Model the fold of this input.
Amino acid sequence: LENGVAALAMSSGQAAQFIAVTNICQAGDHVVASSTLYGGTYTQFDVSFRKMGIETTFVDPDEPENFRKAIRPNTRMIYGETISNPKGNVLDIEAVAKIAHEARIPLVIDNTFATPYL
Done:
């Protein structure tokens, strides 16, 4: 899609998140994530990835500067949802992407609630 060079099909969103995170992060790395993530995603980051040695700091996504403030030297990604579930807040992707680009780390977005049609 949109000039992509490759794609993977996964059996679930949780599997896709696992593949994305574990391809970027390893034990000792850090992630900054929205605090309003879908419950299963929050648990995957807070429990499962922590057991693998990947630490997550959750921030209020309604203020993009919170992402910048939480970045550490070992931060390897910023993670958010286009539209959070269940709160329904909309991430300011442009502002958060600018922060990620300035820090030279990837921004990973879960777009489950926003249809590609829109």
Q: What stands out?
A: The mean pLDDT is 93. Strands lie at 30-34, 55-59, 75-81, 107-110.
